[in-house]
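Morning run. Coffee first, then this:
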Amino acid sequence: VIFRAEGGSPRAFGVNQDLVMGSLLSSSKSSDYANLVIDFDNVKPSSKEVEIYNQVQKILDQCPKVLSLINEYKDCTQLCSKAMSSPSEESEEKAFSALLKSVKSVKVFYDFSNDLKKCVPVLLNELSKPAEETKQTLQDQQALVKQFANILDFVLTFDQIRMMRPHLSNDFSYYRRYLPKFSRRPDIDVKADEASAMALFTARHCPMMVSLSSATAECLEQNRHVTNAMSAMANACLAMLKNKRFSSVDTNKYVARAMVGAVVLFDHVYPSGVFYKSPVDIKGIIKFLKKAEFDAVSLLATIRYSSKNFKHETTPSSITDLFD
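And here it is:
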């Protein structure tokens, strides 16, 4: 999505940077959302929102299953290592049988990411308006804002768990290696062609964010105001957190995750990233998380390690120094 030449400035393929960046010149900082309150706990979709809300909800209904599978994922390292070091019909059969179960889970992850890519443009197009209309859009379409927050919350949760499953990509590599030998088995769900398409997905350390950013970048090609929705989401969440709009610790954590998700997504698709002269109050967000009344260490790590441009030369030291 984003290409950055060695030592140069970023370029976004398929995106008119002047239009995108021009649409954000008047974008608001968090202080402009001081009076905004989004009722994340109780909001219901209006008649105008209900169609898109339900369309997104059908995808979100799969989230508990997907998170359960990634949480319960058991790697096949020992069986695969034994099959490699002491190859025999028995050892290879045991390894491949175990891999079949693992790959079924990976297919669920992969299919879900594709479903997510299909529904996100519909939601973002509805929320993406010119900068001067963005605040009112968030106020008027709170149920859709909540769905966007739900997506961001899920993406961060999944990818954080994925990072703790480093053997997943190795398991998939073993599966592809043994697949030709066991291709006649009737219980194979993922054939060679699909396995090739899934390989890149399994190799990524934050696969859901990459899928989400890919869908968002495609949407941005058609609607230059998409980044307004992301920057507004991040800044509005910061304002609500700073102004203590929510009494529940769980709600505060949820809003903080949506805020960080919006930050990382913005950094993946905005031509110059989130850290360099962006409309997102990134310093304010980092400072808030460092002093948050709840544990925000993982969210700070997400900003640092899941973003694209944190280590780029254009990122000011005043931002990187905040992590020291």
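The two ends are 30 Å apart (CA to CA). Good start to the day.
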